[in-house]
Amino acid sequence: KPGFFQYLLMNKIILFAISIVVSVSHSIGQTFESYDRKAQTFYKNGQLDSAISEYSRALFFFPENPIAFYNRGVYKLELYEIELALADFRNAVHFDFPEPVYPLRNIGTCFYELGRLDSALVYFNQALEMVPDYTSVLKDKGMVLFKQNELNLALNSFDKALKIDPNYANAHAGRGQVY
Q1: Count of other CB atoms within 10 angstroms of residue 139
Q2: What is the pLDDT of residues 83-97, one digit of tens each?
Q3: What is the pLDDT of residues 35-46, one digit of tens each?
Q4: What angle do CA 164, 89, 142 make, to 5 degrees?
Q5: Rounded to whole angstroms, what are the CA distances from 143 to 86, 125, 150?
Q6: DSSP letter string over 45-61?
Q7: pTM of the model
Q8: Cα angle at 151 between 131 and 85, to 5 degrees?
């Protein structure tokens, strides 16, 4: 016959198991949008870790959701978790993110941050093939070319961005770095 403490321990284990089953069954009924809204609320409140965790929970139930991968990658990039962000952006592309230009740009940004400039340039060029007038990517490409000491090509990229948006401060700043 079990003692009092063994009886309590067994009841705690049973209660814990029940709480897990209730939690999982509640989560199964949720849509991706409910996870997304909750993650966005965490983000707006400055709780990036909680937002990342919410997207991780969403991916448990929706393992091929490109939006969850993309948004989690954005938050990881913001926390400077570059390798983890890179993996998420690649998954977003793999699972057909609706507008692949955005994760492609962010993959390029990750490679730039990792100092892998040739790889960054490949992804920035892919993004520009899709959206040739994407000024942020033109600026990013200019920064890579500047770091590679390709000054004329860097200026050309900054100038293309400025032709599209003459007031684009980051392109002006990039141009200024070349001189």
Answers
A1: 24
A2: 999 999 999 999 999
A3: 999 999 999 999
A4: 35
A5: 19, 13, 10
A6: TT-HHHHHHHHHHHHHH
A7: 0.83
A8: 50
